[in-house]
Amino acid sequence: MAHCTTLSSENDFLQLIHKHFPNSHERMLIGRGDDCAQLRGQDSIVMTTDIFLENVHFRRSYFSPADIGHKALAVNISDIAGMGCRPTGFSLGLIVPDEHSGSFMQAAEWDEFFQAMSALAAEHNLPLTGGDLSLGPCLGISITIWGEPGESGRVLTRQSCSPGDVLFVCGDLGLPRAGLLALEELGPEARKLYPGAVNAHLRPLPRIADGLQLAEIPGVHGAMDISDGLARDLPRFIGPACGADLNISAGEIPKDVRTYTQDNGLNPLHFTLLGGEDYALLGAASPDALDALKTHLPHHTVIGTVTATTALSLNGEPLDLTGFDHFATHE
């Protein structure tokens, strides 16, 4: 296939997939190529699906094929991290742009796409168990991923915190949003001005090790991955019966976010909370678990406290930010 410039058949795609993804794994009794894969059974699994669609979730004008392949899998792995679990396998649904569309990809571009996805899969020992292919008007990726609890056997969930619990995050907030907006305005040139933000948007790193460590700490009461911004995800996390007092200083905001908001006359704290695609972990823990957090996750940042009222506040002022909504109209 090295001499081919295009992939013209389903068999071409399957050969390229087999090139990058091993078809044998300790968890697969029957691999790709049959009507179904057969996997070794587990006592319980966590499972999730994410869609990654061209011109909705990414643009080819500044996402390389490798960026697309990496991020499509990374955002799914992050959901497993948010449950305090480890990923154990995934399946891939792919909408392939036809040759008459403006999204058509050459064989070398598909090679980059699968190479980046398989590199991330190998990093987490993830077998690709199968999937489906279809022609379509634009590039689309749908990944279903599953995983299992770590050594503790715990699965961390939303709406399991209580008033008085400490709220914390593992990871940076606001960076991917700054990267997205800079790329939309400046294209690839944005990387020169805001390299950390652009990289955070194009190549998110799932925090599996952090999630597994959180599940090992008994005083950690829950966690989730932040994908729609803290302003929207925080109410989902604490539930309708609780509120939160957030305390976040400007010094805790990543450098590229401070630079981008200063360059564009934006409120850095509000910008950080609106976020989106942060793929940081939000957690809640009892105050007596803070020493364990400091020991095992020294990079975590305390951002506030769960309250018995349903109100949200930021640094003592009422907070009324809605965050990202997948079905809202975005200008």
Number of helices: 11
Shape: globular
Largest sheet: 7 strands, mixed
Please estimate the helix content. Answer: 25-40%
Protein structure class: alpha+beta
What's the SSE pattern?
HEEEHEHEEEHHHHEHEHHEHEEE
Count the beta strands. Answer: 13
- Rg, Cα atoms, Å: 21 Å
The CATH topology of the largest domain corresponds to Phosphoribosyl-aminoimidazole Synthetase, Chain A, domain 2
Mean pLDDT: 93
CATH superfamily of the largest domain: PurM-like C-terminal domain
Under the CATH scheme, the architecture of the largest domain is Alpha-Beta Complex
Question: What would your notes on this structure say?
Answer:
The protein has about 325 residues and is α+β, with helices and mostly antiparallel strands. The protein folds into 2 domains: about 10-25 and about 40-150, 60s Ribosomal Protein L30, Chain: A; about 165-320, Alpha-Beta Complex (Phosphoribosyl-aminoimidazole Synthetase, Chain A, domain 2). It has 11 helices and 13 strands. It has helices spanning about 10-20, 65-80, 105-125, 175-185, 190-195, 195-200, 210-215, 230-240, 255-265, 270-275, 290-295; strands at about 30, 40, 45-55, 85-95, 130-135, 140-150, 165-170, 220-225, 245, 280-285, 300-305, 310-315, 315-320. The strands form 3 sheets. The protein has a 7-stranded mixed beta sheet, with helices on both faces. A hairpin with a 2-residue loop joins strand 12 and strand 13. It is globular, with a radius of gyration of 21 Å.
